[in-house]
Write a structure and sequence with these properties.
Residues 4-35 form the TFIIB-type domain. Helix 10 packs across helix 11. The protein has 303 residues and is mainly α. 52% of the residues lie in helices and 4% in strands. The protein has a 3-stranded antiparallel beta sheet with strand order 1-2-3, with no helix packed on it.
Amino acid sequence: MSFQEIKCLRCGKNTLVTDVESSEVFCSNCGIVVEEKVNDSRSERRFTDSPTIKSHTGDKTSLTRHDRGLSTMINPFDKDSAGNPLSTSMKSSMTRLRKWDSRSRVKTSNDKNLQQALLELLKMKEKLSLPDAIAEKASYIYRKALEKKLVRGRSISSLIAACLYAACRESETPRTLREVAATIGIKRKEISATYRLIFKELDLKMPVVDSVSCVAKIASNAELSEKTKRYAMKILKNAERQNALAGKHPMGVAASALYLACINLEENRTQKEIADAAGITEVTIRNRCKSLKEVDGIWKKLQ
C-alpha cells in the first residue's frame, strides 16, 4: 500500500506528502511526521559529465568491454565531491592511483588480447554504422574463439573482423567481406580464411542471405527512387517463387533486379553505376540479368 492511500494518524485525512530531500513522509494538514529515512528512488546525482546511465545500480554490463563493465573507474576529473579543485599533491596522488587501477584490470595475456580486440571492434562498428546488438554478438563470438585458443598464430584484427562479419551474417545485416576488410585495412582473403575457421570450430549456424534485404542498401548507394526499389523487390519475389535464385550471390541478384527495374521504369542508370553501388562487377550483373529474363513468365508479368 502506498503512502497516498494511508490516512494521517492524528487528523485522519489523506494528505500525506513525501519529501525526498529530507527523506520524510509527513501530513500537509497537521504537520506530523509519519515516517523517516524513506528510500530515494531517483537517479543518482553525480559531478561528472559521464554519458553512462545515471542510476543507483550503475551502468549496464556489456560484452563489448573486456571486464563487462563490472570494474570501477576513478573519476578522471580533478575535483572533489563538492566540485572544488584538488590540491597539487592530491592531483599527483590521484594520477598514480588511476595508472595502477588501469594496470590492475589487465592481469593475463588473454585480458590484454581481449581489450585490444574490443577496441578494434568498436572502431569497426562506428565505420560500418552497425547497431550495438551486432557488436555484442561479435564480442561474444570472439570470446568463444579466445576460449578455443583460435587466436594463436593469427592477427587480432583479422579474427575480430571475421567475428564481426559472422555477427552480421547471423543477424542478416547486409555487410560484405569487402566492406569489412576495407574498414580495418587488411586483405579480404585473410578475413575469409579466418571466418571459415571460426565457422567450423565454433559450429556456427548461419542463415541464408536474402537477396531482397540487399536491395535497400544498393538502392541507397545508387540514389534510386523508392518506386524502383519496390519494383526490384517484386522481381526478386517472383523469381524466388520459381526457385530461380538458388545458388546465386544475393548481392549480384539484387543489383541485377535493380538494373532491370531501372530499364522498365526508365530511370537512367548504367551497369557500372549499379555495380559500383553493390560492390560487384558489370559481368555479374549481365549474367544475372540473363538468368532473370530466362525465368518462364517473370518478365512478361512485370511488363
